[in-house]
Amino acid sequence: MKTQVLVPNLPESVADATLIAWHKKKGDPIKKNENLVDLETDKVILEVPAPESGVLVEIMQENGATVTSGNLLAVIEAGDAVSTSKAESASNDAGPAHSPPELETEDDAHVLSPAVRRIVLENDLDPSKIQGTGKNGRITKTDVLDYIESLSADKETSAPVMPDEPQPPVTQKIPTRLAESQNFAGRPEQRVPMTRLRIRIAERLLQAQQNAAMLTTFNEVNLQAVTDLRKRQKEEFFRRCGVKLGFMSFFVKAATEALKQFPIVNASIDKQDIIYHGYYDIGIAVSSDRGLVVPILRNANILDFAAIEKQISDFSKKAQEGQLSYEDLTGGTFTITNGGVFGSMMSTPILNPPQSAILGMHAIQERPVVENGAIVVRPMMYLALSYDHRIIDGREAVQFLVDLKRSLEDPARLLLSL
Questions:
Q1: Which of 362, 389, 403, 410 is labelled catalytic?
Q2: Are 322 and 255 in contact, with CB atoms under 8 Å apart?
């Protein structure tokens, strides 16, 4: 009996998807629920599992194809007999009994996340040669990047790279000094298509700049009180909650309290109407190998510090492994982005439509400040609030930052909701 493999129903906000990787070839045996193919949308990577066990007899869509819900992807001839005859045929052709390559591919598909699998495919790597350091030997993104770097180091210590040899893959860094010292001929370039996520990011950034009267206001915050509190309580917090106490939970709580005081900052525009949201869904910008994604902390006003830290940690892990769902990324009334983790001292973050404001955090730097007439050194951070000037006046934006600053410089205000 033949079974069709169809594109699953895509969310209403997604018109189509791009087929980025088949994990089986025509004629390969396949197990039920084993991942057959990855589909990339403008937000997430979807895995399409096999509906039945059997043999993949037809592939209807090639890599790079654009597909929509219900499109036919492949045909599986189901049944143990088909799988058995296929395995026997492969064994006869190969001669002496040995582990067939298909089994290794199935194992690889089992342990590789979509994000890791994408890097492996783009760089034409053999996963069996990569040592996994994740749980149960799982290969992580760091393992793959370290393996690529080791290959690069091996090449540098071997024969010089000649001009007619293929250029390294895009994920591999080309040392400038090495290129100059070996007198590379020509000026190599590589054209790489943008991912669906990157295309979507570009569209939304242009939309924000073209459709909003965007303005940014700045302030700075003394994080001495938060730093001292974290030092005193971090071990007890981790012992009780099983997660580290970071800075982000303080900013989420402080931002939520400030949004309560200035609801216009939590609002959005719909044509000629202003929509005031009576809930606080905070988007947390997370960097991944595919680009910037913004999963949502829903009802942040009722979450405690531990719940916030756990969800942010979970979002970060999902983003790196390409496992964020549409539910994780949908909605949001306000966004926080932390360029400080990359060393940024000052920036003007761009709005995340249809939201009307976004908070930018930056690097913490020890700087001299004046307290009670004396010069002291304190951990300081610049804050930036970009907002849509069509509905948010400068007064509300400035006062919002001042309120947030007060909460962070006196964390007790967060406990008392002041």
A1: 389
A2: no
**What is the enclosing helix (H) or strand (E) of 258?**
helix 248-261
pLDDT digits (tens, 9 = 90+) for 47-91: 888 888 888 888 888 887 888 888 888 888 876 544 444 444 444
Of 291, 286, 285, 337, nearest to 115 (Cα)? 291
The 10s digit of each residue's pLDDT in 314-337 is: 998 888 877 888 788 888 999 999
Q: Which residue has the tokens 């940014």?
A: 216
- E-state strands within 79-140: none
Helices (H), 7-96: 80-94
Determine which one of 23, 393, 403, 410 is catalytic: 393
3-state SS assignment for residue 325: coil
- Beta-carbon contacts of 125 under 8 Å, excluding residues fewer than 6 positions away, are 119, 144, 147, 148
pLDDT digit string, tens, across residues 8-52: 887 666 777 888 778 888 888 888 888 888 887 766 777 888 888
Residue 39 to residue 62: CA distance in whole angstroms: 11
Q: What is the 3-state secondary structure (H, E, C) of 182-194?
A: CCCCCCCCCCCCC
DSSP assignment of 353-376 equals TTBSEEEEE---EEEEEEETTEEE
Contact 197, 17 (CB under 8 A): no
β-pairing, 374-388 with 365-371?
Answer: antiparallel
Distances (CA, A) of 361 to 3, 38, 49, 69, 303: 52, 34, 40, 39, 21
Q: Which amino acid is at 71?
A: N
Q: What are phi and psi of 264, to 5 degrees?
A: -65, -30
What average pLDDT does the structure give for the chain?
A: 80
Binned at pLDDT 50, 70 and 90, residue 145 comes out as: confident
What is the number of helices (H) and of strands (E) in the chain? Answer: 12, 19
Tokens of 362: 């930056």
Whole-model pTM over 0.85:
no
Average the pLDDT over 211-226 and give the result.
93
389 is an active site residue: yes
> Cβ of 239: how many Cβ atoms within 10 Å?
8
Q: Does residue 93 carry a catalytic annotation?
A: no
